[in-house]
Amino acid sequence: MRILVTGGAGFLGSHLCERLLTQGHDVICIDNFFTGRKENVMGFLDHPKFEFIRHDVVDPFKVEVDQIYNLACPASPVHYQYNPIKTTKTSVMGAINSLGLAKRVRARVLQASTSEVYGDPVEHPQTETYWGHVNPIGVRSCYDEGKRCAETLFFDYHRENWVDIRVVRIFNTYGPRMLSNDGRVVSNFIVQALKGEDITIYGDGSQSRSFCYVDDLIDGLIRFMNQEKIIGPMNLGNPVEFTMSELAQQVVTLTGTTSKIVHKPLPHDDPKQRQPDISLAKKHLNWEPSIPLKEGLKRTIDYFKKSS
Ligand code: NAD
Ligand code: UDP
User: Fold this and answer.
1) Mean pLDDT score of the chain, rounded to an integer?
2) % of residues, the chain, pLDDT over 70
3) Which of 40, 65, 67, 109 is the most buried (most CB within 10 A)?
4) Per the structure, how many domains does the chain have?
5) Cβ(208)–Cβ(169) under 8 Å?
6) Residue 116 falls within a domain, yes or no?
């Protein structure tokens, strides 16, 4: 197949492009390098089946493809809050442009949505039927509401125009190729530990997240895209939940660092807990993560050691 990946020079996008090339597909990547990097695609930039287009998804694009993975959007709170209006535009216009293209060329289109659509959830763990608890005017809203609006657009294009959609809600995913200044917790803790700097826990560290290693997530994304039974929304993530204090402790142990753990103020609207219910993915994709946090952290630590 010929497959378009928007945001293909980013963390998840570059792993996805690489996996699709390995499977023998033609891959076209669109990215504006906001949080993506040429280094992420360097390993396959000269692959005969790979094509890179520097482009902003806010503006329309035309390519003849069979499938579209719409991943373009900064995912780290630090980066999506840098220019929040642009973040909303990227989510909403990127979705409209991906859907418009899918409609025109009759491609299947997958939206990389997020657990953030559940906001600071009062239902735990989160199932796909939960409508969420999102602040529509807070500092995280550009991302949360942008992604919620994108989901709305996907389902309206499906209902109105029969566009063949897949909507996946990705929970916190980590691994090699995250930016060292990404601002997300796993990369922050590892980079701090390797540099011997203070490890910064925001708040008291009792808030929880469930971390999925990138290889597992990419496997789930591709399985979801290529099955016919269900269009979503579907949760993908690792259901094993950790507090930020437990994560910091694991990073200290695995790196053997002498860094101190310090506490900083909790950012506004920081969700207190997050854990995916992945029953749907287990049932329809026969998928569940296979790489435990300890193993995934070791691989990610190795990556940051080599790239520093
Ligand atoms: P990332 O920031 O590494 O990748 C995003 C990519 O999109 C980057 O290459 C960036 O340059 C590109 N991009 C941003 N705005 C663009 C624009 N206007 N036009 C073209 N390209 C643009 O983040 P990631 O972790 O790889 O996330 C990829 C997708 O998955 C995002 O849509 C994100 O919301 C979603 N997601 C990720 C996670 C996670 O834990 N990694 C969780 C939930 C959802
Ligand atoms: N966090 C932290 N220290 C950091 C970065 C993040 O304690 O250096 C916390 C953050 O407050 C949140 C959790 O880690 O509670 C996950 O943050 P991240 O930005 O990785 O993802 P998200 O909040 O979007 O799930």
Assistant:
1) 97
2) 100
3) 109
4) 1
5) no
6) yes
CA atoms 42, 48, 49, 51: torsion sign: positive
CA–centroid distance, 7 to ligand 1, in Å, is: 6
Q: What digits encode the pLDDT tens for the residues 167-191?
A: 999 999 999 999 999 999 999 999 9
Q: Is residue 187 part of a domain?
A: no
Q: How far is the CA of 258 from the centre of ligand 1 (A)?
A: 33
The count of residues in the chain is 308
Any catalytic annotation for residue 157? no
Q: Which domain holds residue 122?
A: 2-174+213-239+275-290
From 4, 5, 6, 12, the mutation candidate for ligand 1 (largest count of ligand atoms within 8 A of CB) is 12
pTM: 0.97
Residue 42 lies in a domain: yes
Residue 134 lies in a domain: yes
CATH code of the domain covering residue 106: 3.40.50.720
Q: What is the DSSP string of 10-39?
A: SHHHHHHHHHHHHTT-EEEEEE--SS--HH
